[in-house]
Amino acid sequence: MFYREAGQFKTTYAGDQAVFPILQDRAFVIAVILFAFLVVPFIADDYWFQAILIPFLVFSMAAIGLNLLTGYAGQLSLGTGGFMAVGGYMAYKMTTAFPDLNILIIFILAGLIAAVVGILFGIPSLRIKGFYLAVTTLAAQFFILWLFNKVPWFYNYFSSGVIAAPPRSVAGILVVGPASTPMVRYLVALSFVVVFTLAAKNLVRGRIGRSWMAIRDMDIAAEIIGIRPFQVKLLAFAISSFYCGVAGAMFLFLYLGSAETEAFNINVSFDVLFMIIIGGLGSILGSFLGAAFITLLPILLTNLPPHLGFSMPIDLQSHIEVITFGALIIFFLIVEPHGLARLWQIGKEKLRLWPFPY
Amino acid sequence: MEALQAVFVLPFLDMAGEPLFFLEVIIGGLLTGVNYSLVALGFVLIFKASGVFNFSQGIMVLFAALTLVGLMERGVPVWLALVLTVLAMIALAFIVERFMLRFLVNQDEIILFMATIGLAFLLEGVGEIAWGADVKELDIGIPDKSFEVGGILLNEFDLFAAATGTVLVVGLAVFFHKTPIGRALRAVADDHQAALSVGIPLKTIWVVVWSVAGIVALAAGISWGAKSGVQFSLSLIALKALPVLLIGGFTSVPGAIIGGLIIGVGEKIAEIYWGPLVGGAIENWFAYMLALAFLLFRPQGLFGERIIERV
Amino acid sequence: MAIKRTFLTLLSAAVLAGSFAVGSTTKAGAEEAHFIPLLVYRSGPYAPNGIPIANGFIDYFTLLNERDGGIDGVKVTWEECETKYNTKVGVECYEKLKNKGTAGAALINPYSTGITYQLIPRAPVDKIPILSMGYGQTAAADGRIFKWVFNAPTTYWSQASAFIKYVGQQEGGMGKLKGKKIALVYHNSAYGKEPIPTLEALSKKFGYDLKLLAVDHPGQEQKATWLQIRRYKPDWTFMWGWGVMNQVALKEAAAINYPMDKFIGVWWSGTESDVVPAGDDAVGYKAGTFHAPGANTQLHKDVYKYVYGRGKGAGEKSRVGEVLWNRGMLNALVSAEAIRTAMGKFGKKAMSGEQVRWGMENLNLSKSRLKEVGLAGFTPPIKVTCADHEGNGPVIIQQWTGKEWKFVSDWISPMREVVRPMIEAAAAKFGKENNMTPRANCM
Question: Is the pLDDT of residue C16 over 50?
Fold first, then answer.
């Protein structure tokens, strides 16, 4: 009843092609963004910022990146952790080399370097497909981490090989470093995510996005209709790695604060892949839903039983958590293989008729 | 110039300078390679028969080994424990088919892949609850003394594991090519629908391959577990098997063994002769790079089925 | 469709319940008590190590409450949080626990290299001291830069220098080290790389040849490493290993017939779970440590009597006295003693992190104090100062007999003249990069 597009007539092409053509959608998205910017900072505490919101935002960013590559362009990648590491380490190198350079610009530059690395490791995708490609992207994952671990230049010859985010300010406000407040870091992360989400949303509905989808659905056919797989696939790798690189810089600077290469290990790659599959391949919204699911569910499973009054040994609880997590994933895939984004869509369909379904 | 020499000349001089050691490296690589193949085989079997890239194969290795050791710790004799573990793996295959695969027929392969990751989490938790987190010694009575033959050091257990691996692979190859079930398996692998239409029971076939993969996992679990003790990290061995799959092809049983040998020897030689130049520990990524190099020439692996694309 | 609807309902219910659960995490304790957050790992790949450590901690705190009614009359409370040895989960745990208890967390024992590195920058902000006993960042021993981090009684660098001293003793004098070959097999991570600078510096000083062999995580496959050792034929081999890497290394060393009594592991590679799975192959293997093995002290008797005797043990009685149980217990004891020291200055109430930091910095576990707490001969005295957060404690070598660990050396004091300048240089570098100035009032 409330969610109904009847009566919304598009009188211009621009209006017809808007990112959110339906008024209710637009209002909802703006409300969410306003809420996140204006209300959340005042109601969340350190725990919420540090343990839930910031990781959620960072992983959303990475998930969008991988979703562009896997969900839209159809190239399966398990190298996300490696590309994030490139972003993190390069941002660290640049900010220690040029302490006066604005840290936000450094995030972008780190993303660009990650994009170049992404192109390099994307080259095999021209010949290799499917799971073969997925496994070869593991070469990127292992090689990049090995490199950052082995070459002292990347961690400024510090004896332990651990990089730490140094304090940096933007416009007089400390945004990164141990003394920066979680709220500021949250707002920075949020701004990045909002801007790049809009960019991604625009990207996928335009020419580039369409050519990605054509390649995904059948690359030979796409080639025949004049899409060049070489450029398009590499572009997908570049843009996806850019997102992952920025996410990696955020991961290090806004979330962890300090890290060794282990922080970007293969589990990160898998986590991000789970996010986009659970959330929905080929859906920007799905990236967020998936990131929320994968980062929040374990926390929920750990914290819920004690609050409901169950007390059990912590190891048993942890095992049950893992089992529940696994079972939920399987259950999900059986119930809705197209991910949470699809459930959302179904929900919207229902809303259209609610409360008087026929 | 000097750097070039260090990379392109000196390692070879080094090999030629100590041929006995070089031989030892190769033998070591081959023996390790067979162990990689054992893990890779599990992947191949399931991928071949159902198109599922079974990420839980690593956990199945752990699960099988845990069950075996757990039973032995409770005083069950080795042979009985082995039999019971095999039965447990068959039971697992039934459960997987009944509660997971059956509902996922005809889904995208990435969804199936994801489901097996869910399965991996599940098995991990169940295994830990059932058998505890301690590192357990696995000793099924195979000797593991080292002896020297003509200046080359060999280990009895390594040889035994390699022999078992070879027997398993040959056995499976025969099974696939000579028995009716094997033929049915190949038919299913070729085309699910066509296989169904000539009356091959898809569900039975799945249970059979998952059971066989479970048994292969047990063999891999024994051979790796004897070395490291049976513990959680055993499941990570799956990551070592993936490059093997790339080289051999996802669908070839002999490919798994050849791929394993290539990776085993290749990474040992790289680590020992080139590793020191760059600080060592290159084995992990080198295996993947080697596989990548193979793939650039044959995108379906050495023995994988040629990918034919039509519009 | 029905199943989908149920599913949706369930999902939204779960989300609601979840936000409620996470939202109301802080519960105020009524009674005045010290609160100690425990980051434990009882599951995951490193659980075999995490379980005895956690049990040692809890058993000691239980003992304090049962026998003495807490620390000087103020009870000790704690809460476990499962980290799975995962840094991200560790951060979540830390955020969840840091403000609990009447006075907030007294101090934190991260019990993972990764989590320690995470918390080091946060400690001054949250005002919670870190005690990373025998792990973490070695440079933190310089208390002038790392005001909030303590790694008493000794560090990896000190240990590496003690190993070299031990080898010198065995070879018949430090002069004999010249021309000897020493190999280091290390976990290819920040942790594994810790001893390298020290060993390299000492190699220049004493003229031994050092070969570094990295093993990539997780370390199940080490044939290449041990083939290299077989060719290099080192006189001594050191190992900085962790988890599955240890068990495999022992097996591989045996497979190349390497003499086990020339093979020395770091204190994290010298536990029961490292040697038992290797069976007879591990007999003769040595490892460094900073406390005694076994359950032979008065304190262990008290634990049997007051904790396990009353059915309040955290683990199995038979496992009290394992190397890592002892380490967890000692870690708990040092924490408690720091709190006790702080209470001497700030009074009988629950201590805050800031107060415990003072207590930690003024900690003096003298020989007589160790005897009082029932640990005579268990570990050498530990004394922390403002500048020296390590205390420069000695290291001892223990050997596995096939049944138990036994001391085979005297307490070896590390080469402070070599290690301390390196620590100060590393700390200064860290300080410079993070715009920190050393505290002037120390020294």
Answer: no
Element (H, E) at A103: helix A103-122
Cβ neighbours, 10 Å, residue A135:
23
β-strands C181-187, C209-215 pairing? parallel
- Tell me the nearest-neighbour CA distance from A236 into chain C, angstroms: 29
**Token pair in block for residue C261:** 């009594």
pLDDT digits (tens, 9 = 90+) for C348-391: 999 999 999 999 999 999 999 999 999 988 999 999 998 899 88
pLDDT average, residue stretch C242-258 = 92
List pLDDT tens digits, range C54-70. Answer: 999 999 999 999 999 99
Which residue among C188, C251, C273 sits closest to B135, beta carbon to beta carbon? C273
What is d(CA C426, CA C432) in angstroms, rounded to the nearest whole number? 10
Q: Which of A130, A135, A139 sits opposite B245 (nearest CB)?
A: A135
Residue in C204, C211, C216 with CA at minimum distance from that of residue C229: C211
How confident is the prediction for chain C on average, in pLDDT? 89
Question: Is residue A354 pLDDT above 80, yes or no?
Answer: no
Q: What are phi and psi of C412, to 5 degrees?
A: -105, 120
Residue entry with tokens 């240990």: C159
Q: Are A56 and A83 contacting, i.e. CB atoms less than 8 angstroms apart?
A: no
Find the closest chain A residue to C215 by CA distance: A146
Beta C364-365 vs C382-383: how paired, if at all?
antiparallel
CA atoms within 13 A on the CB side of C189: 24
Closest CA in chain B for residue A71: B110
* Best CA proximity match to A91, nearest among A194, A176, A215: A176
Q: What angle do CA A297, C112, B64 make, to 5 degrees?
A: 65
Q: Which residues of C touch A302 (CB under 8 A)?
A: 82
- β-bridge pairing C396-400 and C286-289: antiparallel
**What domains lie within chain C, and their CATH numbers?**
28-154+294-393 (3.40.50.2300), 156-289 (3.40.50.2300)
The residue of chain C nearest to residue B233, with distances taken between CA atoms, is: C45
B250 has pLDDT over 90: no
Confirm if C198 and C249 have CB atoms less than 8 A apart: no
User: Shortest Cα distance from C200 to chain A (angstroms)?
Assistant: 12
Query: Would an 8 Å CB–CB cutoff place B153 in contact with chain C?
Result: yes
Query: Phi, psi (5° rounding) for residue A73?
Result: -95, -5
Q: Do C44 and B232 touch (CB under 8 A)?
A: yes
Strands (E), B131-275: 146-149, 152-155
DSSP state of A53: I
pLDDT at residue C4 is higher than 70: no
> With contacts defined as CB-CB under 8 Å, which chain B residues touch C230?
24, 153
Distance from A219 to chain B by nearest Cα, in Å? 9
- Reported pTM: 0.92
B155 to chain C, any CB pair closer than 8 A? The answer is yes
The minimal CB distance from A320 to the residues B125, B288, B301 is found for B125
Query: Mutate which of B95, B107, B114, B245 to test chain A, going by most A C-beta atoms within 10 A?
Result: B114
Query: Within an 8 Å CB–CB cutoff, is residue A200 touching chain B?
Result: no
The span from the CA of A200 to the CA of A68, in Å, is 8
Whole-angstrom Cα distance, residue B58 to residue C51?
24
How far apart are alpha carbons A58 and A64 in whole angstroms?
A: 10
The CB-based long-range contact list for C348-352 (8 Å cut-off, 24+ gap) reads: C348/C72, C348/C73, C348/C74, C349/C32, C349/C74, C349/C103, C350/C32, C350/C33, C350/C34, C350/C35, C350/C74, C350/C101, C350/C102, C350/C103, C350/C106, C351/C34, C351/C103, C351/C106, C352/C103, C352/C104, C352/C106, C352/C127
What confidence tens digit (pLDDT) does each residue in B98-113 have?
999 888 877 888 888 8
Report the alpha-carbon distance of residue C433 to residue A316 in Å, rounded. 43
